[in-house]
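REVIEWER CHECKLIST
Item 1: Sequence provided? yes
Item 2: Single chain? yes
Item 3: Sequence as submitted:
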Amino acid sequence: MLVPKHLDFEVVTPTYVGGADASSRKADPDPDSKHKAEEKFEAEEKFLKRDARMRVRPIVDMWRYWFRALLGGLIGTDACARERIAEKETALFGGLGEPATAARVRVSLASGHTLRASNKYVVGPAGRNYGAYLGYGLGPRHSGRGEERVLEEHGRCAIEPSQPPFKVDVICGDDDWRLLEHVIRIWSLFGGLGARHRRGFGSIRWSNDGHGQVPRDHARLKTHLEGAVKRAREAFVERYCNRQWPTTPPPGDPPFDVVNPDHCVIRLVNQRFTGRQVSGQDEALTAIRHQLRTDPPGTPPFFLGANGVGWRQRTGAGRATLPATPKARGGFQFYDGRDHDAVHDARTRRSGGRVDNIALGAPIAYPTWDTTIRLLLKDGTELRRPSPLSFRVLKVPPDDFRVLVVLFKSDLFGAADVSAHVGDWTLGQRKPRNATYSDVGMCAPATAMSDLEDFVNKCDGDDLDFRGKP
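Item 4: Structure as written out by the authors:
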């Protein structure tokens, strides 16, 4: 029997999603202009980047991602398991294989097509606070300096938080809903939507979740989150594992993210963000920013753990210390990143050290140098890797915000023959100015994962325990 479900979702942090077609909103260039091509390019870029609206496809894609993560955390990720995961995912959500499979779940957007959007999060005061760093690449892109500085691309707009919920209608069978509701709940608690959602943007709250209100007390909140993961895993065991819980963890490092206590760490940060100076979600995003990269002087007011503030800039064993002396440019003080010297030496074709921050995903841009660190295979193919570390801003009604740090212990670099290279190829650039690369050393996968675990440990909080049955 098919049952309709009406789901309400609230945008918690700025969400960078783009419309499917910006053509209806493009501005035509002046027909009498001598610069028609340039004006047309500018108009298309402007409206493409600013056409921020909710769509069903990205939402369902995230449900599919968490479906794979939950099932892979139970049956493993070897070749046979991956084939089975793909089969079960296609059976539920549909697929274009041979033959094509119709979805057993029908999803539509009932409202939220015209939510308010803004580009203020990556420019202006808020951008200097957190957006320009956490949302690097989403703001306006310029080229040249001084009088020759020109706008090449308009910044993208984000759907703003604190708006009425957007509504999603789901129609599926009873049995499918009993599984799907757990997938949706795990996505809304630990996942996100849109660009840079692993850095805290795009956090979503399922506001009419029938499983009860999220508690404010830290210990009760931790228990609530643990129960959600355990119940989701139990639903998958009943559906796909003949109600038999696996007795051993999946072997090796999984090639994709899985929800398994041996391959996934979820930490609930102690600090509550209540909007004392700015909005609570702005405080939470600022804390994430300062935990990754901070600026002098002193310890910032918002962070996830005092011993790990500015983690990407820290040096020494266990990233123990920030640089002793900050640098200054244009009246702005800053600390160099940990990989600064190694990248600089590689740029100048000198032998250098190794890059450690590559563990947070690749490529990595150094915009002031017009330089990017990329991972390349032996045949020259670029290997793009998402960060195994992600952040989720959790809203606890009415006005508390908490941060979850999620670390997936997956196969970081995906291939034994991958190497790191430094080149003059800026992120987002259509063609490389200089495709010649200089090699730079890179951390070993085991060292990189240990480094990421150290980051999580320096965030003051408690790890969720989701072993066993609920």
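Item 5: Key structural point noted by reviewer: The chain has a mean pLDDT of 84.
Item 6: Recommendation: ____
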